[in-house]
Specification:
197 residues; mainly alpha; 3 strands; 54% helix
Amino acid sequence: MRADVDAAAGAVGVPDDGLAAYIDAIVKATADKPIPLYLYHFPAQSGLPWHIALIRRLREAHGSRIVGLKDSSGDMDYAREAAKIAGDFDVFPSTEAALIEARGGAFAGCISATANCNADLCVRAWRSGDSSAHENAVAIRSLFDGKPLVAGIKALLAHIHGDPAFAAMQPPLAAPSAADKAAILGGYDAVRAKMVA
């Protein structure tokens, strides 16, 4: 399939016209209470990318009702391109690595699951540009690379708070392997110990 046809059809065969119709339906259903709408770009989970051309199309059709995008693609070039759509279109990459760039105005901030484990560092990086805090926040995030994210975060929160209830998983998710858990907890403790030293 040609790349332009594949992009227009979406990863699982849902065309951009179908996604536009979906947003049209939401806008019409909320016309009496015009809530702002954020798009969630997570093609690895949804199989449905919000192409830049489609976002521009939605903005043209619905103006400021389409206010932003949470980008969980991991593609920073995509996030940067989306952030150029308009000055009032907020883009939130899903990584702490974007915080310093966000301080400079490229993004509205970040929305990251791992910020549950390093929020203090993220706040320091965001508020004051603290490069050491930023480096440590990114180091903690990297502990989850190649590991089940939700299970790993829950295991780490249980460790941080000394409460095993935080680690409880609901099917179909499962606890991390012993090796993954040990790597995450040990890595976290090493980052925090380095900060104190």
